[in-house]
What we know:
The chain is mainly beta. Helices cover 0% and strands 49% of the residues. It contains no helices and 10 strands. It has strands at residues 3-7, 10-12, 18-25, 32-39, 45-51, 57-59, 67-72, 77-82, 91-99, 117-121. Strands 2-10-9-4-5-6 form a 6-stranded mixed sheet, with no helix packed on it. Strands 1-3-8-7 form a 4-stranded antiparallel sheet, with no helix packed on it. A hairpin with a 5-residue loop joins β5 (45-51) and β6 (57-59).
Amino acid sequence: QVxxxxxxxxxxxxGGSLRLSCVASGSLFRFYNVGWFRQAPGKQRELxxxxxxxxxxxxxxxxxxxxxxxxxNAKNSVYLQMNTLxxxxxxxxxxxxxxxxxxxxxGAHDTDWGQGTQVTVSS
Length: 123
């Protein structure tokens, strides 16, 4: 059993930075890939990027070069460092984990969605 809790959101001006945290409970966290998602007002939740169990990362084009995902298994945590924030980055940010499975999993054991953390980018 792994549960994730997001924190670190807030109000920031365009061009500013925020660091979000995703803290896990459970002893199996190190076996999970973890993705960061964003849900903008009136839009579907979208995948921003993810970090694998081995520490490899991938990002969607809209955040590539601005956002960085990292993990610290000793602290049961994953982080999202967001730089050069834009108004379009406004939304609720979520993290979600999936246990590693070669070739991908079926989603049956993915973590439940938490409450997320609100990020507002506005001048």
